[in-house]
Amino acid sequence: MYLEDVDKVVCDDRLELEEFIAIVSEILRRGGVDKTVAVEVNSERAVENAKLCIALKKLGVRYIPVSRGFAENTFVPLEKLGFFDEINPSRYRVFADTEELLYRNWPTPLVRLPRSSVAGRIVWAKLEGFNPWSMSVKDRIGWYMYRKAAEKLGSFQLGLLVESTSTNTGLAIAAMCNIHNSKLRAYIPSTVSLTGELLLKIFGAEVVRSPKPLTVDLIDEVEAIAKTEGAIHLNQFYNDANFEVHLRYTAKELELQIREAGIKPKAIIGGLGTSGHMSAIALYFKNRFREIKIYGVVPAQGTTIQGIRRIESGMKWIHHVEIDGVMDVTPDEAAEGVIEVARRDGILIGLSSGAVYMAYRKLVEKGELDEGDHILIFPDHGFKYIEQLSKYINKPKSAHHQT
Ligand code: PLP
């Protein structure tokens, strides 16, 4: 057995989502791999365990354990595979361009919110609003889906891209288009704020507003337009690069942050839109730390909160992973959550983050969260929602929030 540079090993096979999830679960549960990838006698082409090889590449390891001719049973831990090496922030924060500003600025901050914590259930917030383009978790998928499409095409210039978006994914893709000389046409549903539309236009995207209320309502239409016009539809709702980027970076960096903080979180709570980030976090942490609970957050029946939506409106990855519950939050509660966190800990978060915070409060009230540390994934920054928040500024706190 020897460790081969990941780029030298050729593994051409197909790996379906279910197979990928099964292999990744095993790797994460064991904390490494327990067999090698067999390569040909005189080349680095995989002849056995090629699917393991693909999965390792998708996870962003630096080395693949290989053996000549036949696979061997031998255990290689994650650290030896260089599994965590990619999380490599710029020490003095100097960046070659705004693309590097994205991926070499990770991890996004994990910050304790002592004044927003209640009843001994300590809140740690992962602030995805610290991503530079859309100031949201969606920069990660805009970047990765674009890169994967560019790799496939052999060029970073992709021409026209079309995408159904509730602003954030659109901003992220628009940024990649600007960096690489392509063009985005964003299709936005009726519920997107004027601020969102203007931001997309400022980023140079052409914007088409639909009378339909949800991004998912527009997918088929956008797919048809892509076919007619020969445009690229990255399609955040079905593109596995969405799920994979969060496994490879978001979840992995969160493990490193938890280690540095010296905490053993009891639960992770986050919003569900495409379900990309929370499905990856669920898969990762349920396998790495068996005891941890994972909760998703959605808007209450019949309401909308920008960025998140009901599971029954159609989601891909969440159905392939294990979660402990889904919490309903109303738009009023989400806005109150934003204002409460701003006034308690002095940080401005977006409405879906406010919803995540209120879900935490509800879980505490229901007695579902044990004492200890809890991680809330806050998907975006609050600047986009100032107008929506304005009517809550002078409202007295509801009884629900008084502690
Ligand atoms: N919150 C906001 C503000 C978002 O823009 C999104 C995604 O659009 C989400 C939450 C949900 O993230 P995901 O699509 O990974 O489920």
Q: Layout of SSEs?
A:
Layout: E1 2-5, H1 17-30, E2 32-35, E3 37-39, E4 46-48, H2 50-58, E5 63-68, E6 73-77, H3 98-103, E7 110-112, E8 121-127, H4 138-153, E9 160-164, H5 168-180, E10 183-188, H6 194-202, E11 206-209, H7 219-229, H8 240-261, E12 267-271, H9 276-288, E13 293-299, E14 325-329, H10 331-345, H11 351-365, E15 372-378, H12 386-389
Parallel strand pairs: 3-5, 8-15, 9-10, 10-11, 12-13, 12-15, 13-14
Antiparallel strand pairs: 1-5, 2-6, 3-4, 7-8
The structure holds pyridoxal-5'-phosphate (PLP).
Q: How would you portray this structure in words?
A:
36% of the residues lie in helices and 18% in strands. It has twelve helices and 15 strands. The strands form four sheets. It has a six-stranded mixed beta sheet. Helix 4 packs across helix 5. Mean pLDDT is 96; it is low at 399-403. The structure holds pyridoxal-5'-phosphate. Residues 136-138, 166, 168-169, 271-278, 306-308, 350, 352, 379-380 line the site of pyridoxal-5'-phosphate.
